[in-house]
Amino acid sequence: KAAAAWALGQIGRHTPEHARAVAVTNTLPVLLSLYMSTESSEDLQVKSKKAIKNILQKCTYLPALEPFLYDAPPNILKHVVGQFSKVLPHDS
Predict the structure, then answer these.
(1) Alpha helices of 13-73 — where are they, by DSSP H?
(2) Residue ranges covered by each domain of the chain
(3) Any idea which fold 2-90 has?
């Protein structure tokens, strides 16, 4: 699972198109649950968090980010809000 989380983060960090492709497959909520689970190993939690951050920083598809406004812990939420602040001024 840790290797898969890492790979998804690497894919999602390349371009906004890559990030959207990863995000629309419902990957972000799964990564978030792995990150927040007390049953996940420390390695899995670290890789899940990094993957989420990588994907969020490139994702410009806001509908994929909206659920995070309600469910994400503050250290993830700051990246979600950051993306909204980057995308909304340019969204027409």
Answers:
(1) 16-23, 27-36, 42-58, 62-65, 68-71
(2) 2-90
(3) Leucine-rich Repeat Variant (1.25.10)
